[in-house]
Amino acid sequence: MSTVAAASDLRRSAYLLLTAVAVAIMAAKVVGVENVYEPSRYAPATAAGYGTEKVREWPKVRPEPTPMLSSNDRSRWATVRALVDEGTFVVGRRENFRPDDFDRQKDYRDVGVIFEDGYQSLDKVMDPKTGLFYSSKPPLFTVAVAGEYWLLKKVFGWSIVADRWPVMCTILLTVNVLPFAFYLVMLGRLFEATGRTDFGRLLAFATACFGTFLTTFAGTLNNHLPAAYCILFAAYPLLKAALAGREPGAWGYVGCGFFAGLATTLDLPAAAFLAAVGLPLLVARPRQAVFFFLPAALLPIGALLACNHAALGSVVPAYSEFGGPWYNYSGSHWAKRGTPLAKGIDFNDEPTSRYAFHLLFGHHGWFSLTLVWLLALAGLLTLGVRGVPDLRKVFAGGKGPVWTPPLFAAMTLVVSAVLFAFYLSRTASYNYGGNTSGPRWLFWLTPLWLLGLPAAADKLAASRAGRAFAAVLLGFAVMSVFYPAWNPWRSPWILQLLEFKGVLHY
Question: Are 435 and 490 a contacting pair, CB within 8 Å?
């Protein structure tokens, strides 16, 4: 066996072992998931009780054990239960409801799944005409999860109420862990093709396994992990074909379009990626774009619109009603805005410049929490500059593959900038994604940034100091990823440190 072949075989063995460990860690987070009450998050009672300024009141009786960790996933689980067990998207209703007084009404009583112990969630909206409550989450993903619950119920007789761990853990293994294994296999193949050194390839792969927040959120039902997987699944056929110097083929365009469209339904701002991939294809390969890419992309988007209409009677998502009557009803968490009760990170009010800093380099920073992204940025910039001539060729109708790794790096930088600017424009949502351990709205960019790592890591591989520097950056990223040991819906370690030192408090 030649030296090159032996090195390649050793790397593949390393990929296999790292994949086994990473997937096992993700699976352990799922099967061991349980909502834990941390005493540090609760105000102690005084002789007069808890008072009016309490943050949280310690439960007087033992809470019901649950694998649901936050308002975010409880909102989705409540809809899954309502769809399968009750045949409706309605997760609650307001008794004694008066449409003409819905935002001031006092003598009401809210009932339904989302008001039960363990299912209570802030992520709900109320129809101001009917007093019916719905999840505020886009419904397509929830409908798919409900389909799996329906199957488990029919085959095994499991109930999400009586058998919550078997049902919820099985679903989480299906949507969070199993795709992660395929995700790592695909990344390993791309790193093999784009990397030039053993160190660069292995650093990128180790980061994919242990250095991103996808691992952190494995134990909770969320849209960010599936969205990130779909972004890679969309990019893979294009990049594999480009690296081989050929066109993706019909099924490659179909796969790219479908997963780019599906990513958009899971994380709506991922429409930026769909547009960034689709526009060059439409210009350079109009036939393939019109007959293969676009129909495949529109399929999941059409399914989302249909589900939204079935749930709310409108194709417009519930998010579009933020700040209006669907959110600001009497008793709503979000109706507190502008009142003395509007406290905490959900109602954060700070200048755009400060929010931008903390979203990039501060307590919720894309770079400060995942320091290895600094290397990825260097790699993306290095490749992206080389992608400018490729872009000119695309719009000039040049021959050869539409996408190249340099052009893909340039696209990643543009899409990342657009996404960042989008969230800076949403001044009413300057809350960093709520009580969460990382900048979760940016997580779907993860596979795109991972693809920029080998280019920078290869340059550091030439020196011992460079390799040590890269290892330190990866180590800090892993610390951020594993810091929220019990629950990903907790503040990042940087914010907790700032609060402990009295520097900042939301």
Answer: yes
d(C-alpha 318, C-alpha 126), whole Å: 10
Q: Is residue 52 over pLDDT 70?
A: no
Alpha-helix runs per DSSP H in 317-366:
352-360
Distance between CA 305 and CA 310 in Å, rounded?
A: 9
Do residues 216 and 440 lie in contact, with contact meaning Cβ atoms separated by under 8 Å?
Answer: no
pLDDT for res 50? 43
Contact 201, 195 (CB under 8 A): yes
CA distance 111 to 327: 17
Q: Which two tokens stand for residue 184?
A: 């790592």
Q: Put the strands of the sheet holding 132-135 in their side by side order.
A: 109-111, 92-95, 132-135, 124-126
Cα 186 to Cα 19: distance, rounded to the nearest angstrom: 11
Average pLDDT over all residues of the chain = 91
Q: C-alpha angle with apex 346: 272 to 46, nearest 5 degrees?
A: 160
Dist. CA 142–CA 89, nearest whole Å: 10
Beta-ladder partners of 109: 95
Alpha-carbon torsion angle 103, 109, 110, 112, nearest 10? -160
Show the tokens assigned to 63: 């809470």
Q: For residue 391, which of 406, 376, 412 has the smallest C-alpha distance?
A: 406
Catalogue the long-range contacts made by 28-33 (C-beta closer than 8 Å, 24 or more residues apart): 29/215, 29/218, 29/219, 30/169, 30/172, 30/173, 30/176, 30/177, 30/218, 30/219, 31/169, 31/173, 32/219, 33/67, 33/69, 33/168, 33/169, 33/172, 33/219, 33/220
The pLDDT tens digits for 321-364 are 888 889 988 889 888 887 888 888 888 889 999 999 999 999 99
In a 3-state reduction of DSSP, which class is residue 223? coil
pLDDT at 46: 61
pLDDT of residue 472: 97
Helical axes 464-482 vs 198-210, angle rounded to 10°: 10
What DSSP letter does each residue of 46-103 carry, written as one string? BTTBS-SS-S-PPPSSPPPP-S--SHHHHHHHHHHHIIIIISSS--EEEET--GGGTT
- Give the model confidence (pLDDT) of 209-228 as tens digits: 999 999 999 999 999 999 99
DSSP state of 397: T
Which two structure tokens, joined as six digits, stand for 355?
């929010």
Residue 402 DSSP code: S
Element containing residue 316 per DSSP (H, E): none
